[in-house]
Amino acid sequence: MSTSAATGANSTLGYFRWAFIVTAIGLVLGGVLGWQSSGTIAGMATVFFICAVLAVLEISLSFDNAIVNANKLKDMTPVWQHRFLTWGIIIAVFGMRIVFPLLIVVIAANIGPIEAVILAAREPAEYARIMNDAHLPIAAFGGTFLMMVGLTYFFNQEKDVHWIEWLEKHMARSASIKGIEIAVVLLLILLFSNLLKGEEATTFVYSAIYGLVTFLAVEVLGGLLDASQKAMSEAAKGGLGAFIYLEVLDASFSFDGVIGAFALTQNLFIIAIGLGIGAMYVRSMTIMLVEKGTLAEYRYLEHGAFYAILILSVIMYVQTLVHIPEVITGLGGAALIGISLWSSIKYNREEREAEERLAHESVAENI
């Protein structure tokens, strides 16, 4: 291996230093929980394995999350980048992986937070049942928010780089129709609500509308906050508004993973450890994408991420009707990002070859 290659490998691994540390701590804690709950080596190994699988599940579901985060972060000042990557990750790990599932049980079961923690510790099966019963409104809310994120990216008149040209060019041109992405989402809400029955249909519609309103509110609030900061200082680009947007976006991405984790274990604390480990890798990937300029180098990578978001949002809608294994969701998103990466590498190679041809032709003409 050459010195430069070794340096590149070391620098890349350096981005994942904290993720490796958290992985080691998390797996040790998982092993301790397994020993305390079962008192056997087999039980300890089982919990250890579940934590590892949950971490992989979170990483596979969050490839697109890291890319979208990086896209937003590259326009933020270093101060706000640092705030998101420190306070933001604390909110993501503890807020979405621990507090969020507790809040769902608090609201659904009409009990206090302390009682919810006791329920999670002493009656994990009942806790899991309440979480699963809350899946429909969560899927409707999160699916709608993510769908708006994806459609807003493609319905953009200023977007001039297209991966699937025949589709994306039409979507960019259609962006001149004001509110077209909202109309598309509302049509899908009506379609899926008609496939549900009675109270489920009503719950779906209300939850989806709340997701739509939340997206619009975050967009408006973000614009107002960043505009006021910009008026105070031009350097305050991408501040509090962008931070709030990224936090809500991360929450929407997390819904599916948190609910899906209960298929592997009903223990909230094991879920928090496994998903928390995965979240640290997402943070590391985000930092690497921003600092190494990977999004600029691979022009279609961002497109793949937003297509993955759109597919995830539709899957969340479909999951209100039938169960779709989370492994399919994760592999589907990873496959799209992989194809977009391959397309970017192919484009870069063709561009280099074209430049080399022009250079040779220019030299030949001068001779």
From TrEMBL:
<keyword id="KW-1133">Transmembrane helix</keyword>
<feature type="transmembrane region" description="Helical">
    <location>
        <begin position="175"/>
        <end position="196"/>
    </location>
</feature>
<dbReference type="Pfam" id="PF04332">
    <property type="entry name" value="DUF475"/>
</dbReference>
<feature type="transmembrane region" description="Helical">
    <location>
        <begin position="300"/>
        <end position="318"/>
    </location>
</feature>
<dbReference type="InterPro" id="IPR007427">
    <property type="entry name" value="DUF475"/>
</dbReference>
<feature type="transmembrane region" description="Helical">
    <location>
        <begin position="268"/>
        <end position="288"/>
    </location>
</feature>
<keyword id="KW-0812">Transmembrane</keyword>
<feature type="transmembrane region" description="Helical">
    <location>
        <begin position="324"/>
        <end position="342"/>
    </location>
</feature>
<protein>
    <recommendedName>
        <fullName>DUF475 domain-containing protein</fullName>
    </recommendedName>
</protein>
<feature type="transmembrane region" description="Helical">
    <location>
        <begin position="12"/>
        <end position="35"/>
    </location>
</feature>
<feature type="transmembrane region" description="Helical">
    <location>
        <begin position="84"/>
        <end position="114"/>
    </location>
</feature>
<feature type="transmembrane region" description="Helical">
    <location>
        <begin position="41"/>
        <end position="63"/>
    </location>
</feature>
<feature type="transmembrane region" description="Helical">
    <location>
        <begin position="134"/>
        <end position="155"/>
    </location>
</feature>
<feature type="transmembrane region" description="Helical">
    <location>
        <begin position="208"/>
        <end position="227"/>
    </location>
</feature>
<keyword id="KW-0472">Membrane</keyword>
